[in-house]
Amino acid sequence: QITTLINHKDKPKRSDKTLQAIQRVGQAVNLAVGRFVTVGEAIANENHELKEEMSVACIEARRAGETIAQLTDVASLDHPESDSHITIFTDKTGVVKAARLLLSSVTKVLVLADRIVIKQIITSRNKVLATMEQLEKVSSFQEFVQIFSQFGNEMVEFAHLTGDRQNDLKDEKKKARMAASRAVLEKCTMMLLTASKTCLRHPDCESARINKDGVFHRMRLALEQVIEIVTDSRPNGESEMPPISIYSGIKEFKNKVEGLRENLYFLSKENLSTMLEVILEHTEDFTDSAYTSHEHREHILELSKQAKMELEQLVSVWMQAQNQKTKDLMEDLEVAILKTCQCMNELKREVHSAATSLAADLLKYHTDHMVLKALKITGVEGNLEAVAEYTCKLSEQKEQLVEMCRLLRHVSGTEPLEITCIHAEDTFQVTGPQIISAAETLALHPSSKIAKENLEVFCEAWESQLSDMSVLLREINDVFEGRRGEKRVYLSLPRPGKHNANLKALKPVKLDTEEQAKIAKLGLELHLLTSDVDSETEKWEDQENEIVQHGQGMSSMAYSMYLFTRGEGLLKTTQDLFHQAEIFATEGTKLAAALQAFSDQVHNDDKPLLLLEAEKLIAMCKQLQITAKASVQGKSATFTKVDACILKTRNVMTLLCQLLPLCCKLLRKNKAGNGCLKPAPPWREDRIRTGTNAHTPEKRTETFGIKSLEHHVTNMTFLESK
């Protein structure tokens, strides 16, 4: 809204409608600022150490809001006596200054509020650490029970604070790291209870002490990692250097190679050679692994050799093309680029097959948990020799699973999944020795109920991690096959069946086998289109671009609708599907709005085509929304409606497949022609993001009103334009 005010065109004739609209916008901004500031002041009163800074920022924001309201008070301009009145038309710089002050002060308030959240998490962590130190030193059961009760309450508080923080994180990588750390803390809380009780019951037992110390150490590391994520810092100023996976290496290498089509001089041949060397070094993790099959090893070595040859050929043609840019040479370069990329794709496919087939075989082989069962039985029997034999087998199993996680990380495809693989590797690495120490304790004290319970807890953690690996393997395969996964659909959009009061009265209906068969072809077409859209969005350099984000969101929703046609996924009933279709259409309308905004930044020759495509998209989304909302009765009519929704979704996705490459081309054309685009409205992205999050249910209310503050920011940045 503020951008609209600043960018309005100064026309000599101003209609009453224009004047009233400008005044409404100014008043709405001022009111939203007032509400926002009220919450900010309430936070200031509850947090005295930041009260002064927060109060100053709130005063600045209120002053800026009032200035904008005064400068947009233009309804009286038609009257001669108001000629001396300063308005947006007579002093546009005043609105610009006020807008800058408003943005600056609002940001300041948000940053201060964020500091308060961080301080709360750190304080909560310190409480947990202090109580953990007391728990380590207790010598009696009575004292332990009392302190553990306090510890439990503190862990619950820490879990709530960090859970809210995890939901608020925008960086998917940080979100995955936070989820991993919180999972460790959750599982270790039960382990800490049984390990401590075992140690108290058998104070002279060395294996019980080792078992307990391992749990405390792991919890401290997890607590430290949470604080690193929250404060965005590393101990001793170290910078985090995540290991590079084969997937990310190949993706970056291909991008560089394909970039030669547009610019022959943007990188050196040494750079490309080094990138390939790094990728091939990582493939040694597969070729050197004892668990990689002979066939996979041979294929990986062959493809590595071929990749070197293809790069040599590419470099040769590339160097010639730099000296003499003839048509024949450019055609040869295109062939060399295609052959190099094809070879890298085959290498990627081969390492993926090697990692996932190993994982599938290992998970199937260890699904019966025979070693864990044997440890429990021999432990209760007090058979130290048998326990030693089975701990060796568990150590072998641990080495296999750790190797599996390392190889899966290379082919995981996304940073969050990479982090999940690293977390799984750590879990197997740590839990294996802890099971062994728990089993040894039980073998030494076979009649001890607490030692038996302790072993059970650690075995359950192992079994749980194996179960999680099956889910992780499915997600990795989804990414490889071009599917983004179902979770993405619901990150910022209302979940079907949750937010529509009218749904309660309707009986949920599922498609039967015959109906699924009828609609299968349409579903398959939709699936192929989602893969095409995902492939087009990956070509964009700026993955944060509004058009890309809406495109990805629509692709994920369309994929969940495809899963529905197969009787799979999170959309269980026809009513879920219709609600998802409505949300899909809404997202399409937002994409159309983003396209219209983008049209202001392109050359005049290209603008009509882009606007025409945006209008087509709006019309198609409107039709889909009407179809999805239409009331029907009876099985036949419901199936017809399902068919129509899938068909219209497919048509929108077909248009999206044409739109994405067009926009990408126009973006590059503008960059090449102008050096840069016209500045895009800075508040537009925030407006759309906050809009998509507007219906997300709050899990709990913060005592000092941070959620309330965010709600008022939403009001300020997402004002109705009616």
Automatic annotation (TrEMBL):
Q: Does the keyword Cytoplasm apply?
A: yes
Residue span of the signal peptide, if any? none
Pfam families hit by this protein: Vinculin (PF01044)
What GO terms are given for molecular function? actin filament binding
Q: Where in the cell is it found?
A: Cytoplasm
Question: Where is the chain membrane-spanning?
Answer: none
Q: Which GO terms describe its biological process?
A: cell adhesion; Rho protein signal transduction
InterPro entries, per the entry: Alpha-catenin/vinculin-like_sf (IPR036723), CTNNAL1 (IPR030045), Vinculin/catenin (IPR006077)
Question: Any idea which UniProt keywords this protein has?
Answer: Cytoplasm
PANTHER family this protein is in? Answer: ALPHA-CATULIN (PTHR46342)
The record's family statement is: Belongs to the vinculin/alpha-catenin family.
Name of the protein described by the UniProt record: Alpha-catulin
The species this protein belongs to is Columbina picui
Q: Which gene encodes it?
A: Ctnnal1
